[in-house]
C-alpha cells in the first residue's frame, strides 16, 4: 500500500492547477534547506574546535556529551513551531476498505521525512567519526550513533503527538512550549540544576556502559507506539469528534465572557480560532517568547539608554496586537462573505477585537512584572506603554487592517507561510514604533524625560476614553473598504 500512497500523492501534485507555483515554492524551499544544511555541516565539521574553545577545561567527549540533551530540548521547541503534521494526505482513503494499520504506518513513515531528522546526522556524526571512533571502541561509537538517532526519532514523534493533541485543545501546545522554556530557564536563569550535567551523566556513561544506548531506543519505540495507537483510535473524523465531545468540555468556553453579551461571544470565538489553528496560534506563541525580550536590554544597561525601556515596554505588552491585529479580517477570510450578510453588528465586532487585545496585553503586562528586578522605573514604563498600546496602537493597527485584503488559509501551517503579508504590514510598523518617540525624544533631549513619559501616558488614557469615537470612525472606514476586502479574500 505504501507504493500506492506515494503514486497517488505524485499524481495529486502534478494534476493540481497551481502546479507551477507549487514547484517554484518547493525549489526555493529546497535551496533554503540545502543552505541551512550546509551551515549545519560546517558547524558539525568544526564542532570539536568549537567545543575546545567553549569548554577548554573539559575533555572533548565530555563536553560533547554535555550538549546533547540541550540540543534536543531546542530541537523539540523548533519542531513544535515548524514541523508539519502529515495528516491531510490520507483523508481520501478513510472511506475505502483499507486497513487502519496501513494508513497509520504510512503516516508514521512519512513523518520521518523531515529536515529536522537530518540535523543530528550532519551536526554530530562528523564529531563521532573524527574523535570518538579514534579514542574509543567501535561498540562505543555505535552506542553514540544509536542514542543520537533514537532521540531524534523520539523528538519527532513527541512533537507530532503534542501537535495532534493541541488540535483538540490549544492549551496543550502552550503548556508544552512553556515547559521547554521553563526547563531551560531553570538552568540558565535560576541555576536550579545543570542540563549539561544531566546530559553528561547519561551520555558519559556510554563510554563504559554502551548498553545504555538501549534506553533512548526503547523510549523512541514507546513514543512511536503511543502515536500509532492515538492515530489508530482517532483516524476517522467522526470518531475524533465524538471522543472530543465526550471527553471534556471545550477549553474555550469562558463563563466570564457571557456577561458581555454578543461582544463576549465574539471574543470567545476569536479565542477558539487562535487556539485551534497553527498560523494564528503562532502569533500567540511568538508573543509569549518575546516576553524574554527585555533580558537583551536590561541586562546590559550601559549599552542601552532610557529609550530602550520605552521600546521594550511597548514591544512586549503590544507584540500580540502587532502580530495578530494587522490580519484582523484575514483570519476570517474563508467566511468573510458570511460575515457581510450576517446579523453580526460590526461595532460589536470591533469591540470584541479591542477586548481581546486588552485581555492579552494585560496578561503580557503581568508576565513582564518580574522585570521589576531591574528597578521600579522599568515596571512604571511598562505600565505607561501598556496604556499607550491600548489607547493608540490598537486603533492604528485596526485602521491598517482595513487595508489588508490578502487572505489567510487557516488550514495551512505557520512555518514559512507568508499568506496575508504585503507592503501594508511593513508600513504599519513605522507609525507603531515611531509615534511614541516623536513625543518622547524632544523632552528627553531637553532633560525632561518624565514629562515625555507623562504625555505618552496621557495620550494613551485619552485614546482609551475616546474609544467609542474611534470605533465609529473605524466602522465608517470599514464600510468604504468591505467590498474590496471581500473581493481580495475570494482570490485564492
From TrEMBL:
InterPro entries assigned: DUF5687 (IPR043742)
Keywords: Membrane, Transmembrane, Transmembrane helix
Residues spanning the membrane: 23-47, 59-82, 103-133, 139-159, 171-193, 213-231, 282-298, 310-331, 352-373, 379-401, 421-439, 445-465
Top-level taxon in the UniProt lineage: Bacteria
Pfam family membership, one: DUF5687
Coiled-coil ranges per UniProt: none
Protein name per Swiss-Prot or TrEMBL: DUF5687 family protein
Protein species of origin: Mucilaginibacter gynuensis
Amino acid at each position: 500500500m505504501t507504493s500506492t500512497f506515494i503514486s497517488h500523492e505524485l499524481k495529486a501534485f502534478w494534476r493540481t492547477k497551481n502546479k507551477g507555483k507549487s514547484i517554484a515554492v518547493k525549489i526555493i524551499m529546497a535551496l533554503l534547506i540545502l543552505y541551512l544544511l550546509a551551515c549545519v555541516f560546517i558547524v558539525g565539521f568544526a564542532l570539536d574546535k568549537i567545543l575546545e574553545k567553549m569548554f577548554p577545561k573539559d575533555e572533548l567527549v565530555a563536553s560533547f556529551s554535555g550538549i546533547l540533551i540541550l540540543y534536543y530540548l531546542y530541537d523539540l521547541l523548533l519542531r513544535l513551531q515548524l514541523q508539519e503534521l502529515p495528516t491531510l494526505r490520507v483523508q481520501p482513503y478513510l472511506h475505502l476498505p483499507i486497513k487502519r494499520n496501513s494508513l497509520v504506518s504510512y503516516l508514521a513513515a512519512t513523518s520521518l521525512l523531515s529536515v529536522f531528522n537530518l540535523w543530528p546526522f550532519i551536526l554530530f556524526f562528523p564529531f563521532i567519526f573524527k574523535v570518538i571512533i579514534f579514542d574509543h571502541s567501535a561498540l562505543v561509537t555505535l552506542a553514540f550513533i544509536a542514542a543520537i538517532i533514537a532521540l531524534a526519532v523520539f523528538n519527532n514523534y513527541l512533537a507530532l503527538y503534542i501537535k495532534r493533541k493541541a488540535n483538540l485543545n490549544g492549551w496543550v501546545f502552550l503548556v508544552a512550549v512553556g515547559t521547554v522554556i521553563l526547563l531551560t530557564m531553570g538552568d540558565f536563569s535560576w541555576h536550579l540544576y545543570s542540563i549539561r550535567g544531566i546530559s553528561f551523566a547519561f551520555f558519559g556513561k556510554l563510554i563504559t556502559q554502551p548498553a545504555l544506548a538501549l534506553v533512548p531506543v526503547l523510549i523512541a519505540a514507546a513514543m512511536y507506539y503511543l502515536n500509532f495507537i492515538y492515530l489508530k483510535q482517532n483516524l476517522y473524523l467522526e470518531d475524533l469528534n465524538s471522543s472530543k465531545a465526550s471527553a471534556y468540555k471545550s477549553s474555550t468556553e469562558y463563563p466570564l465572557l457571557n456577561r458581555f453579551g454578543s461582544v463576549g461571544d465574539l471574543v470567545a470565538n476569536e479565542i477558539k480560532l487562535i487556539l485551534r489553528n497553527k498560523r494564528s496560534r503562532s502569533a500567540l506563541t511568538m508573543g509569549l517568547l518575546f516576553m524574554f525580550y527585555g533580558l537583551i536590554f536590561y541586562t546590559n544597561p550601559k549599552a542601552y539608554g532610557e529609550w530602550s525601556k520605552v521600546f521594550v515596554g511597548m514591544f512586549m505588552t503590544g507584540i500580540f496586537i502587532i502580530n495578530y491585529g494587522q490580519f484582523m479580517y484575514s483570519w476570517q477570510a474563508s467566511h468573510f462573505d458570511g460575515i457581510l450578510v450576517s446579523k453580526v453588528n460590526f461595532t460589536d465586532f470591533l469591540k470584541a477585537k479591542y477586548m481581546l487585545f486588552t485581555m492579552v496585553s494585560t496578561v503580557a503586562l503581568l508576565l513582564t512584572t518580574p522585570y521589576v528586578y531591574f528597578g521600579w522605573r522599568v515596571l512604571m514604563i511598562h505600565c505607561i506603554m501598556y496604556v499607550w498600546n491600548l489607547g493608540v496602537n490598537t486603533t492604528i493597527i485596526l485602521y491598517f487592517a482595513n487595508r489588508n485584503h490578502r487572505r489567510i488559509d487557516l488550514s495551512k501551517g505557520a512555518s514559512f507561510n507568508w499568506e496575508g503579508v504585503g507592503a501594508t504590514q511593513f508600513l504599519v510598523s513605522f507609525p507603531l514604533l515611531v509615534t511614541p518617540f516623536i513625543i518622547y525624544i524632544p523632552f528627553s533631549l531637553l532633560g525632561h524625560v518624565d514629562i515625555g513619559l507623562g504625555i505618552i501616558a496621557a495620550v494613551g488614557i485619552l485614546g482609551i476614553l475616546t474609544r467609542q469615537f474611534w470605533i465609529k470612525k473605524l466602522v465608517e472606514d470599514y464600510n468604504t473598504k468591505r467590498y474590496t476586502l471581500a473581493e481580495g479574500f475570494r482570490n485564492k
